[in-house]
Amino acid sequence: MANKDGARRDGTRRLRTTVRDMILSMTLIVLPILAVFWLMPSTASSTPVSVVSASEYQAMLSAARTNLPFTALSPTGLSAGWQLTSDEYEPAGESAADWHLGYLTPSGKYAVLEQTTESIPQFLNDESSDATASGTVQVAGASWQEYIGTSPSALGTLLFRDDTTKAGTSLEVVGGSAPMSELRTLAASLQG
After folding, report:
1. CA dist 49 → 85, 102, 103, 138 (Å)
2. Is 49 inside a domain boundary?
3. What is the extent of the structural domain holding 7?
4. Domain count across the chain
5. Which residues pair with 115 in a beta bridge?
6. What is the pLDDT of residue 15?
7. Does 36 share its domain with 62?
8. Is the same domain home to 58 and 117?
9. What's the gap between Cα 35 and its chain centre?
């Protein structure tokens, strides 16, 4: 009987020791891992987008003005708070000719200039936009058609204006999630 009781005590003691050792081992493994994650510097930047340099923009603008069937517009006089995050053009071919400038505005929202040979319905269809006409807006003496929508949210407000110059005809589009005051600033800054 003494052997049975002694064996039980040894088994219980070993079980407690095994569980305690397992918890200590897990703690020793998990604590350094948590410390590494806590001490690691964040890789997220304060600005989640990259900014287009002035030289890259000038090269793209020059190429666009050479290859598009209209004069690519360029904003002038925007404050330093406007950060150009994308610039590209698509010459006329299988798809419509297009000039695109995307901005992070001073309020941290998105604003875009699109210049295209598409019509308003074609543009809205290509952007999968549900925007509908809501009126006319005067900006720097020019009339723009205002469209408001909810999808995609990055293009909640759109301003459209047809422009005909010696170089050709284009549909000018200023839009984004930025407040109307910033969209008006962008529209007023456009120069050919």
Report:
1. 7, 11, 10, 31
2. no
3. 1-40
4. 2
5. 99, 172
6. 64
7. no
8. yes
9. 33
Question: Do the beta carbons of residue 132 and residue 107 sit within 8 Å?
Answer: no
Whether 149 and 130 have beta carbons less than 8 Å apart is answered as: yes
Based on the domain organization, do 8 and 77 belong to the same domain? no
Q: For 168, phi and psi rounded to 5 degrees?
A: 150, 180
109 located within any domain: yes
Alpha-helical (H) ranges within the chain are 2-39, 54-67, 120-126, 180-188
Query: What is this structure's pTM?
Result: 0.72
Instruction: Taking residues 161-180, report their average pLDDT.
Output: 85
pLDDT at 38 over 80: no
pLDDT at 163: 78
| More confidently predicted of 22 and 146 | 146
Q: What is the pLDDT, as a whole number, of residue 4?
A: 60
Q: Specify which residues 103 forms β-bridges with.
A: 84, 111
For residue 133, give every residue at least 6 positions away whose Cβ sits within 8 Å of its Cβ, in sequence order, or none: 145, 146, 147
Residue 47 lies in a domain: no
What does the pLDDT read at residue 42? 54
pLDDT exceeds 80 at position 8: no
Q: Is residue 45 part of a domain?
A: no
